[in-house]
Design goal:
Distance between the termini: 9 Å
Mean pLDDT: 90
Protein name: Monoamine oxidase
Number of strands: 13
Helix content: 25-40%
Number of helices: 9
Strand order of the largest sheet: 3-2-1-5
Strand content: 25-35%
InterPro entries: Amino_oxidase, FAD/NAD-bd_sf, Flavin_monoamine_oxidase
CATH class of the largest domain: Alpha Beta
Low-confidence stretches: 1-14
Number of domains: 2
CATH architecture of the largest domain: 3-Layer(bba) Sandwich
Domain Amine oxidase: 15-257
Organism: Neobacillus ginsengisoli
CATH superfamily of the largest domain: FAD/NAD(P)-binding domain
Pfam families: Amino_oxidase
Amino acid sequence: MQIHYIYFYEVEGDNDRLPNAFLPQLKKNLYFGYQMTKIVQQNHQVTIHSRHTLSQIPLIVTGDLAIITVPFSLLKFVEIEPRDSFSHNKWKAIRELHYVASTKIGLQFKRRFWEQEGIRGGKMMTDLPIRFAYYPSHLIGSTGSGIILASYTWEDDTLSWDNLPEGDRIRNALDNMAAVHGKQIYDEFLTGASHSWSQYRYSGGAFSMYKPSQETELFPYIPVPEGRVHFAGEHTSTVPAWIEGAIQSGIRVAHEVTNLPKTL
């Protein structure tokens, strides 16, 4: 059985540590920075077409099987050939599975002023636009700067944040936090950053979440292989939206491909 590993990802700071941990064993078969454009099943093989996100150089890899972890929010933009190599129910799931919009905003301050207010970790809920904030539970009592997850919103609560540029998100989140802690925190503010998963080109949403009746109608067909194409990722598991679901799906699909008939 011919096996190729294609890992589509974009380096963002420390996010490269996990994939780099696999390099010693897999580096000869890893292709970084490629975006999948087409899946072709024919002649007892499956071929993945992709292009480099910067240079646009194409890459075509053919093997016996493919394990696809791309979220369905983006898989709908990948050409499937022949189209009927995916079942009607799989196409229905790809088209209809709901993905949640979500935005997080982090703020860094010169000192951990919230600890002087008696806050040592925990979550704040408010009807302000920031909705939910999270205080760090590590390095409690330490000196120096600290970071608060000043806003975690999703679904309708995140839409107003997604309409704002980065600077306005940070300023409004800081204003909301000042409404809770007092205006003195402006003097403590250092910098901020935000991330919108619905606007992130490689996820198209933060995670999958079933709308009413979707778990009954869609889930039985989401993890099922289509010919030589197998599926993994949190959206294919019984615990979507969590890392446990991604791990569960990886174990499941590993059993699928290793237990296939030897004559495949």
